[in-house]
Amino acid sequence: MNGLTVYLKPLLLTILFEMIAAYILGLRTKKELLLTVLVNIITNPLLVYFSLILMYHLGIKTGTILTYVLLEPLVIYAEYLIYKNCLSDRNCLFLSVILNLVSILGGLLCQKIF
């Protein structure tokens, strides 16, 4: 797998899963859906990058655990702050948590299938 694929595959899967979940949660305008894409373009590559660093230095198992325990909460918080500034009429913490849970579960499912 080349360097770009390492970042594009999880990003595209995350966008797909979170767009579907966002739509189900009531984000229907172009602005809201575009925001979901842009938020993930910012946070997902950073998460993948730091996750790979953790796995390289600490091993896959420990790195993965730390990614879920340390990095994912940071992503949820960062996304919450962005959503809060852009979507004033939504429960942005709930939105961020649910979208990220959907993304994590979707990614785990894809790993098991493929």
Distance between the termini: 14 Å
Residue share in helices?
over 70%
Give the uncertain stretches in residue-range form: none
Question: Mean pLDDT, as a whole number?
Answer: 95
Compute the number of helices.
4
The gross shape turns out to be: globular
Question: Percent of residues in beta strands?
Answer: under 5%
Sheet/helix structural class: mainly alpha
Please tally the β strands and state the result: 0
Strand count, sense and closure of the main sheet? none
Rg computed from alpha carbons, rounded to a whole number of angstroms: 14 Å
Tell me the number of structural domains. 1
Describe it for me?
It is a single chain. The chain is mostly helical and 114 residues long. The protein has one domain. The chain is 88% helix and 0% strand. The mean pLDDT is 95.
